[in-house]
Design goal:
binds 4'-phosphopantetheine; 19% strand; Rossmann fold; 5-stranded parallel β-sheet; single chain; alpha/beta; globular
Length: 160
């Protein structure tokens, strides 16, 4: 049983995240999308909202589950018996942070591998922060996020 963890803030989930999950679900028996409870950057959406939007957007996958975690990611991964941490890479600018994080995690848990998915070119510019900014300024985000997020953002003025 090959289990992978896809961790993140998901504030909110974008089509870029969903694309990574769709591809990972084909390679692993089970993919656990793990939402960090208290991200370092203050989240716009509550944990319940972030988990809810993910669940709705991923309901079509039988082998994907959504969960939340706090503490060290590698401890959570060990608890879930995951062999792999999945991360998406968009541009060169992601690399430094991802490199540091992967090596730090490997130092703490040498048996857990980090696997990077190169973004689809369609989503290479896409980030949760820009989605929130565009929504706040009245722009069209319909092609950037799943339906559950579109609806949530429609009913709510983000970013105050
Ligand atoms: O979507 P994000 O904000 O880039 O996700 C970052 C996340 C949640 C994967 C990262 O902050 C994390 O793993 N935090 C848990 C604490 C931890 O394990 N830190 C040590 C590795 S850097």
């Amino acid at each position: 049983m090959k289990i992978a963890i896809y961790p993140g803030s998901f504030d909110p989930v974008t089509n870029g995240h969903v694309d990574v999950i769709d591809r990972a679900a084909k390679l692993f028996n089970k993919v656990i999308v793990a939402v960090i409870r208290n991200p370092e950057k203050r989240a716009q959406f509550s944990l319940t909202e972030r988990v809810g939007m993910l669940k709705e957007s991923l309901a079509h996958h039988k082998n994907v589950m959504v969960d939340s975690f706090d503490g060290l990611l590698v401890d959570y991964a060990r608890k879930k018996k995951a062999t792999t941490i999945i991360r998406g890479l968009r541009a060169v600018s992601d690399f430094d942070y991802e490199f540091q994080m992967a090596l730090t995690n490997r130092k703490m848990a040498p048996k857990i591998e980090t696997l990077f998915f190169m973004t689809d070119y369609k989503y290479s510019y896409l980030s949760s922060s820009f989605v929130k900014q565009i929504a706040k300024l009245g722009g069209d985000i319909s092609s950037l996020v799943p339906k559950a997020v579109r609806e949530k953002l429609k009913n709510r003025k983000v970013g105050g």
